[in-house]
Amino acid sequence: MKNVLLVVLFLYSSFLIGQNGVSPDKVVTPPEKVLFTFQKEYPGKIAVWVLKYVGDDDDEIRYEGKFKTNENTESLAVYSNLGVLKAFETQIPLSKLPQKAQAYLKKNYPSNAIREIAVVVDDKSKTTYEVGVEKKGRFYDLVFDQNGGFDVAIEKD
Questions:
Q1: Burial level of 100, CB count in 10 A (0-12/13-18/19+)?
Q2: pTM score
Q3: Higher-pLDDT residue of 7, 43
Q4: Which H helix or E strand runs over 110?
Q5: 37: nearest Cα among 99, 90, 80
Q6: Helix (H) / strand (E) containing 27
Q7: What is the pLDDT of residues 10-38, one digit of tens each?
């Protein structure tokens, strides 16, 4: 009986140790290539980094660094594990959103539903606008193209 108890205890502790890996959305230190590229592009800025798994099978690693570009503006730089910038997102005021997108928001959402507005530039220099809105207790990212045309609404957790 004592041996059975020891075996069960050993297996249980092995499972606990195995669960102590790096989890997504946990603050991490990115690889040196990522840090080097970030410091080259945004000198003097200090980012808080998280690890994300993306791709069809969650098989690609991305490092997201949140930082302030100035006192009032939050930004997010997304890098591959090789230090290649994949996207840059920065907050903007409603007035910087294209008129077409502003008209869409005014028609479909009350002004107090808007939570955040950002401009996103990807690695192919494609610009989109993302507006975070809350409707009926659910949070959505509304994506607009460069000209302000509505593209898609993505429900977030």
A1: middle
A2: 0.76
A3: 43
A4: none
A5: 80
A6: none
A7: 555 555 455 545 555 678 999 999 999 99
